[in-house]
Amino acid sequence: MKFLHTSDWHLGRIFHGMHLTSDQAHVLEQFVKLVGDTRPDAVLIAGDVYDRSVPPTEAVQLLDATLSRILIDHRVPVIIIAGNHDSPERLGFGAGLLSRQGLHLAGLPDKNLAPVVLYDDYGPVYFCPLPYAEPPVVRHLLSAPEANGHDRAMRCLSQHLARQVPHGTRAVALAHAFAAGGEECDSERFLTVGGSGTVNVSCFEPFHYTALGHLHRPQQAGARHIRYAGSLLKYSFSEAAHQKSVTLVEMDRAGRTRAETVPLTPRRDVRCLEGYLDEILAGPQNGENRHDYLMVTLKDTGAVYNAIGRLREVYPHVLHINRPHLAAGGELPGFAGEHRRLGEMDLFASFFEQVTGAALSEEQARVFTAAVEQLYREEREVSA
């Protein structure tokens, strides 16, 4: 059995004011070609297909065109689960009808959630979709009062699917979660506020391979057969050093897997430049694309007139400028420039202490957490 594992397309993403749909289309063209070249038995998309619950029209059109080519032109089945950015109800619309055409969608994890069974020369392989869901949703839909927290909710989902797999049969999981020990990026949305959103990789013990989504850096998660494919593109400057890819997995008759990363080449890279303004204005020195998306850190300590305007004459897509010496003394206490890596709770607690002079109490933290989580729920459930 051979399958392509990908995730975190985030179609419709806006990056520092730039709409990335054309960049995403460029990379998805490579992905569709890869499907044609490798002829996999399935394509697995492990969540966050869209960047928000109500995606823009052009994002929906891009997904429609991409899936149509995979399913119709190459006749390869596709299995998709919802991520924390997706609306599970929208993503799962028409799942019963579309499954007959080879498109298997898992939005909400209800009691009807079942494995997708595909066959190779050695028999069946059970693909078990574990879509992202908040613990209260899992408790309600699976009648699982023990699903308190993300780890227990994922265990309930995993066990629900694993019970449907015959003993001794090969099984593959698709999950959208933050596996404990994984390496984060600035572009990922926290799964919970003021608590732990991580799950232990032991949740995935019943499966011969687990195709994970959520973390944007391609990486293993505790074991060789539990893996993040990473995002389609670089969605933050913290990812500048990443090599984006998809994962081609081959499984033998015993369920042993071999994974190969296949790199993706963006139309424009995401890069960080550092130096004095005059040096940077001299232009690319090593053959870099001057049209890449850039964050520029200026070492100049004196006044700089119209820095971004002058830089964009050489590099049209400079998106952000850092002036470290100007920020000195103006950071949130104790964070030393790391505010982009912090969650809502840490940022609000620091802001609250700066404004009031008092630390955030446990009760105030609970109120803040409830308010933010309610906003996230409303965003996911909002009607078009």
Task: Report what the structure shows.
By secondary structure, this protein is of the alpha/beta class. The chain folds into two domains: 262 residues, Purple Acid Phosphatase, chain A, domain 2 (4-Layer Sandwich); 60 residues, no CATH class. Helix content is 29%, strand content 23%. It is built from eleven helices and 19 strands. The strands form five sheets. A six-stranded mixed beta sheet has the order 6-5-4-1-15-16. α7 links the parallel β17 and β18. α1 packs parallel to α2. The longest helix has 20 residues. It is globular and about 70 Å long. About 2% of the residues have low confidence.
SSE blueprint:
Elements: E1 2-6, E2 14-15, E3 18-19, H1 21-38, E4 42-46, H2 57-73, E5 78-81, H3 88-91, H4 95-98, E6 103-106, E7 116-120, E8 123-130, H5 135-141, H6 150-162, E9 170-176, E10 178-179, E11 198-199, E12 209-213, E13 219-223, E14 226-228, E15 245-251, E16 257-263, E17 270-275, H7 277-281, E18 293-298, H8 307-314, E19 318-322, H9 324-327, H10 344-356, H11 362-381
Helix pairs in contact: 1-2
Order of helices and strands: EEEHEHEHHEEEHHEEEEEEEEEHEHEHHH
Shape: globular
CATH architecture assignment name of the largest domain: 4-Layer Sandwich
Number of strands: 19
Distance between the termini: 39 Å
Q: Provide the CATH top-level class of the largest domain.
A: Alpha Beta
| Low-confidence segments | 332-337
Range of helix content:
25-40%
Strand order of the largest sheet: 6-5-4-1-15-16
